[in-house]
Amino acid sequence: MISSAPTPKKLTSIEEYKAFLDKYDTFLLDCDGVLWHSNTVIDGVLETVKFLRENGKRLVFVTNNSTLSRPNYVKKFERLGIQATEKDIFSSAFATAVYLRNILNFPKDKRVYVIGESGIVDELKEVGIETTGSSDDNGVTMTHADFGTIEDDPTIGAVVSGFDINLNYSKLAKAFKYLHNKDDVPFILTNDDATFPSISGHYPGTGALAQPLVFALGRQPLVMGKPNKPMLDCFFSNYHTDPARTCMVGDRLDTDIDFGAQGNIDTLMVLTGVSTEKEALDPEQPIKPTYIIQSFGEFAKLA
Ligand SMILES: O=C(O)[C@H](O)[C@H](O)COP(=O)(O)O
Ligand SMILES: [Mg+2]
């Protein structure tokens, strides 16, 4: 079906960059694929961030990457040369913690089994929620004789699954045990990005890593990250911005650009990450950015 969304405008000249920036005071910036690839900053991004801040623009970082807590993101930003504070960082791990505390009123006598990295564990701890799993189960190898050793645990009140570079069968088996035939135990996914944009190409993302559990359980998880409501609520309830003067900058149509659309704000898609210009211009593509630019680093040409 042909999309009714207007055709995105590609920004290519200095004049267009200036006119674009004059329209907005606040930029919501995705991270992976926009600012950096893992620990490598994309060319021109540091100069762009400096230029925007020198021209009075507010920058807020909105990432689906659940591997780091906000304090650890602050350290990563600083290490890569970008000044940032915790209050300017919204991650899917933070949105998950807020959802468990504020929406699910997670019971004090329960714990969360985590498939994921320190970001989830630290953000849950920050809101008083105890966890198990995560790095505790890294490197655990199983034999067929071990199936009998996986016990149920009545203290597990939810399972949260995020990006886990140390995913293994033991973690999947435990999570399955805690969720199987237990619809009262929430199954939460920090985000469902299918792929992860690294410096050397794309690899399976958080959404892909969760599929063994989703298929085995025959159950769809609650998804927190962009473009879903928990992240929208987490952001817009904590951050007051004029939608007409705000722009979401992202590399992915089905997370970043859709997040902007659902937040009724304009969007800028960069071509340094996951989604391509061809995909964005596809007449059948329902999610369309307002603007497209080769790279967020392009604005450095204005400095
Ligand atoms: O697999 C993932 O979790 C995503 O690829 C990744 O984390 C996306 O992060 P973002 O682009 O939202 O910063
Ligand atoms: Mg991204």
From TrEMBL:
Pfam family of the protein (one): Hydrolase_6
Binding residues annotated for Mg(2+), in chain numbering: 30, 32, 251
Cofactor annotation comment: Divalent metal ions. Mg(2+) is the most effective.
Active site: 30 (nucleophile), 32 (proton donor)
Cofactor: Mg(2+)
Keyword Magnesium: yes
Gene Ontology cellular-component terms listed: cytoplasm
Keyword Nucleotide-binding: no
Entry keywords, A to Z: Hydrolase, Magnesium, Metal-binding
The reaction(s) this protein catalyses: 4-nitrophenyl phosphate + H2O = 4-nitrophenol + phosphate + H(+)
Residues involved in substrate binding: 226
Name used for this protein in its record: 4-nitrophenylphosphatase
